[in-house]
Design a protein that fits this description.
- The chain is mainly β.
- 10% of the residues lie in helices and 67% in strands.
- β10 and β11 form a beta hairpin.
- The N and C termini lie far apart (42 Å).
- Strands 1, 2, 3, 4, 5, 6, 7, 8, 9, 10, 11 and 12 form a twelve-stranded antiparallel β-sheet that branches.
- The radius of gyration is 18 Å and the shape is elongated.
- The protein has one domain.
Length: 220
C-alpha cells in the first residue's frame, strides 16, 4: 500500500508541475534550493519545511556562484529509517556544489553533516550524520523547477543506555517541485522513498523509509 501511494504521489507531482509550467504567471528566477541550482553569490535564503518525518528550517548563504553554505535545525517526530514514531532533534551544516546549470537543466551534489539526539523506547542516544545528496533539476519554464533526487544519508547512532552502535542508511529516491510565486519567494515540495537499512551488533534489517516535505524559500 505504501509503495502504491508513493508511486501515485510521484505521478501527481510531475503532472501538477507541468500544469504549473503552462499556467504560471511568469515570476522568473535563476536560483533554487531543492533543484540543482544554488541561491546565488552573496544571497541569503531561509527555507522552513514541514511534513514527514518532521519540521525544520534551513539557512543558506551563497558563498559563490556555484557554492552554498549554511545550516539546518530539524525536529523529527518520525524516524528517517522507517515509518515509526521516533522523536529526534537534529543540527546539521549544509554544503552544496552546483555541477551544471543550463537553461533547462541543472545538477548539484550536497551534504548536511551534523549530529542529532534521538528519544525512543524509553531511552536516548546520539546520531552522527554523513549524508550525500544528488539533485537533477529540469526547468520547463523560468518559474518552475522539477527535481529528481537520490539521497544516501548515512548515519551512526550511539545509545546512552548501553545498547551499542547502530548503523543506518535510508536510501531515498523521488521527485520534487520548486515554484516561484515572486522573484524572491518560492514554494517547494520534496519527496523521497526507499529502503531504510539498519545494522547493529545483533544483525541487520530494512524498513520502508519515506520523506515528504513542503516548504517556502525566502530570499532576503
Amino acid at each position: 500500500m505504501s509503495n502504491r501511494l508513493a508511486v501515485l504521489a510521484t505521478v501527481a507531482v510531475l503532472a501538477s508541475s507541468q500544469a504549473m509550467a503552462d499556467e504560471a504567471p511568469g515570476a522568473a528566477v535563476d536560483w533554487g534550493v531543492v533543484t540543482g541550482r544554488t541561491v546565488g553569490r552573496s544571497n541569503f535564503v531561509i527555507h522552513p519545511e514541514f511534513g514527514w518525518p518532521g519540521i525544520g528550517s534551513g539557512f543558506i548563504y551563497g558563498a559563490g556562484d556555484a557554492f552554498d553554505v549554511g545550516g539546518r535545525f530539524t525536529f523529527n517526530y518520525g524516524s528517517e529509517l522507517a515509518t515509526v514514531i521516533a522523536p529526534e532533534i537534529k543540527m546539521t551544516g549544509l554544503l552544496k556544489f552546483k555541477l551544471l546549470d543550463r537553461d533547462k537543466f541543472s545538477m548539484a551534489i550536497s551534504t548536511e553533516p551534523g549530529i542529532g539526539f534521538i528519544f525512543v523506547g524509553g531511552g536516548a542516544g546520539m546520531v552522527i550524520f554523513f549524508p550525500a545528496y544528488l539533485s537533477f533539476g529540469i526547468h520547463p519554464a523560468p518559474q518552475v523547477g522539477i527535481v529528481l533526487g537520490a539521497d544516501l544519508p548515512f548515519q551512526i547512532g550511539f545509545s546512552f543506555n548501553g545498547g551499542g552502535v547502530v548503523f543506518g542508511l535510508p536510501m531515498g529516491f523521488g521527485p520534487g517541485v520548486e515554484f516561484a510565486i515572486a522573484p524572491n519567494l518560492q514554494l517547494t515540495f520534496n519527496m523521497r522513498f526507499g529502503p531504510g537499512i539498519i545494522a547493529a551488533g545483533g544483525g541487520a534489517g530494512a524498513g520502508f523509509a519515506f520523506k515528504t516535505l513542503m516548504g517556502i524559500a525566502i530570499k532576503l
